[in-house]
Amino acid sequence: MSYDPKSIIQSYERNAEFEDASEKGRSLRVELPREFIWRYLRASDRVLDAGGGTGISAIMMAERCSRVTLLDITPRMLQIARDNIAQAGPSGKIDLVQGDITDLSRFRNEQFTFVVCVGDAISYVLDRRFQALDELVRVAEPGSILVLGCDAKFGFMRMKLAQGALDEALDILETSTSTCGMGPRTHLYTVDEMTTLLKERGCPVLEVASTPTFGDTMDLDGYTADADRWEKLKRLELALCTRPELLGMGLHLLFVARKEGRRAKAERDR
Ligand SMILES: C[S@@+](CC[C@H](N)C(=O)[O-])C[C@H]1O[C@@H](n2cnc3c(N)ncnc32)[C@H](O)[C@@H]1O
C-alpha cells in the first residue's frame, strides 16, 4: 500500500472542524502526549511541530519555548491554526508552513532542537515512513528530543476483535496496516519496530507510552463532562501508560527519543 498525500488532505479538509474541537477539548490522545512534551521542553528550544494540525499544542509550546514552526499538509487545518493563533493573541513566535513530513528540504540540517510529530502523520505516510523519519531526524540538532505519536498495531487488532472483525484483525497481523477512524490508510507500529527505526537513525528511545491505555475503549462521557473526574482519569492513565506490560493495549503509541550527540555518532560510524 503506497502513501497517497491527496487522500490524507481530503480526509483532513473534511474533518478539520472536528479535529480542531478535539485539539481544544478533553481528549486523552491529545492531552497525554502534551504531558510528555512538558517534561522535556526547554525555554531555549526551537520546535518543529510536524503534522501540527490546528495549532493548539503549538500555541501552548510557544508560551514555554523560543520558537515553534508548525508544518502541516492540509490547507484547512493551517487556516484554522492561523485563526487560533490570532485569537490566542499572536506571540510572534509561531511560523506556519504547508508541507509534507516526507520532504522537509525547506529546513536546514539540525535547524531545530525539539521535534514533535504527534497525531499519526508518521503512520499515514505508510511506505514513506522511512524517509519521513530520516527527515525528522535530519532537521534535529544532536542532543534534541523527538516526540513521535503513531497508530499501534496490537491496539488496532484488539479493537477489531472487540468489533467481531476477526478477518480484519488477521489482516493487520499480516500487513500492519488498517484504515483509521477518519478514513486514511495507516501503518500500525509495534514498540519494537519504532524503537528499532529510531535507534538505526541514532535516536535511542527514552520513553514509550500507550496514549491512552484504557481510554480508547471506554465510554468517556461520564468523565469529559466533569473536570474533577477528567483530571483523575488523566492521572491514572499517566501513572500506567509507560508500564511495559500495558504498552500497545491502546490505539496509539508515543515515543520520546534523543538524537545522539556528534561524539556518539562518530563512535557508531567507526
Ligand atoms: C490527528 S491530527 C494531529 C494534530 C496535532 N498534532 C495533535 O496531536 O493534536 C494529524 C495532522 O497531521 C497532518 N498530516 C497528516 N499527514 C501529514 C504529512 N504527511 N505531512 C504533514 N502533515 C500531515 C494532518 O493534516 C493533520 O493536521
Detailed description of the structure:
The chain has one domain: Rossmann fold, CATH 3.40.50. It has 13 helices and nine strands. The mean pLDDT is 95. The protein is α/β, with parallel strands linked by helices. The strands form two sheets. It has a seven-stranded mixed β-sheet, with helices on both faces. A two-stranded antiparallel ribbon has the order 6-7. The chain has helices at 5-14, 16-24, 28-40, 56-62, 75-87, 121-124, 129-138, 153-162, 166-175, 191-200, 221-224, 227-240, 262-269, and strands spanning 46-50, 67-72, 94-98, 112-117, 140-151, 177-179, 185-187, 205-210, 252-258. The structure holds S-adenosylmethionine. S-adenosylmethionine is lined by residues 8, 12, 19, 23, 30, 51-53, 57, 71-74, 77, 100-102, 118-121, 124-125.
Q: Give the DSSP E fraction (strand runs of 2 or more residues).
A: 15-25%
Class inferred from helices and paired strands: alpha/beta
Summarize model confidence as the mean pLDDT: 95
CATH class: Alpha Beta
Order of helices and strands: HHHEHEHEEHHEHHEEHEHHEH
Label the CATH architecture: 3-Layer(aba) Sandwich
What would the CATH topology be?
Rossmann fold
Count of runs of 4 or more consecutive helical residues: 13
Shape: globular
- What is the end-to-end distance? 36 Å
Q: Any ligands, ions or cofactors bound here, and which? A: S-adenosylmethionine
Total tally of structural domains: 1
Give the neighbour order of strands across the main sheet: 3-2-1-4-5-9-8
CATH superfamily placement = Vaccinia Virus protein VP39
Biggest sheet statistics: 7 strands, mixed
Low-confidence stretches: none
